[in-house]
Design brief:
Elements lengths: L2 E3 L5 E3 L25 E4 L5 H10 L4 E4 L12 E4 L2 H5 L4 E4 L4 H11 L8 E5 L5 H11 L4 E5 L2 E2 L1 H7 L2 E6 L2 H11 L3 E8 L4 H29 L4 H8 L7 H11 L10 H18 L4 H16 L8 H5 L4
Parallel strand pairs: 3-4, 3-6, 4-5, 6-7, 7-8, 10-11
Antiparallel strand pairs: 1-2, 9-10
Helix pairs in contact: 1-5, 7-9, 7-10, 7-11, 8-9, 10-11
Length: 321
Amino acid sequence: MVIFRSRRGMMICISNACHQALYCPQPAGERSMTEGNTIGVVGLGNMGLPIALNLVKGGYPVAGVEIDQGRWETAEGLTYVADAAAALARTDTLLLSLPDGKVVQAFLAGLLELSLPDAVTVIDTSTIGPKTSQEISRQLAGTPLRYLDSPVSGGVHGAQAGTLAVMCAGSRALYDRVHPALATFSANQFFIGPEPGQAQVLKILNNFLSATALAASSEALLFGQAHGLELTQMCDVINVSTGMNTATLDKIPRQVASGEYNTGFSNSLMYKDISLYLERCQELGTPGRISQTVVDLWGAFTTLSPQSDATNIFRYVDQTL
């Protein structure tokens, strides 16, 4: 049995019996998925679980792979199975929600050791960076695994509400086939381009903007507080002015002002994502002066308080963490 950790640290495994018989459907080309088709979800952590529950709500039974039984949640239509091989005994479609590229690559390498059906669709919602996504695409060429680069944005609350944005890159026919399932957990679905990795580019640049907005907004609002201004009132004014951003609209009023600091997204994951952005800037020789500053800030914050909720950047900037 091969064990990995899913996104947000959940544990999953490939197989207890690598060569057991797997689901082998009749050839179906690229016909669209319809309600009633089972989907295997690998990694039912903070993001994977609500995605799975929305798939069920949308009419797609889920075979969930999550070895940490303490994380299991009972729901009609959600069946937990021992491993990926057991999931593939029920379906030819897997959705991954895993923490990083190394885990995704190891998981897919394990899948290739199984006796696979003719075609297995892999919808990878993990944030792994364009380079790793491109490597995976090359590694899977000529195998039964059909890979769709499909990172999501919107956080835990978006996953719970079914309002995520999902960005997809790869075969357009494959995207069209799985689109009905994607629509169960996302409000917006985008086909970015034909090459895996293109969706990752958009995801990591988005997270760079999000990290920058949260850090810069924290500093600006602390500046206002130092002059006696009230936090939520500042956000109210900014949100009808030119400084409006996702931090002032959502994270600071809902998480910082309330004292909750609980978005479900850690500083460690944010640092990982924006580091992927900076690394790609350096590889391509594109401007990265601002991103270097932002990555350094988040890196210092993560070193001081690893796995802290990302909104605690406000306390870090305020030097009260």
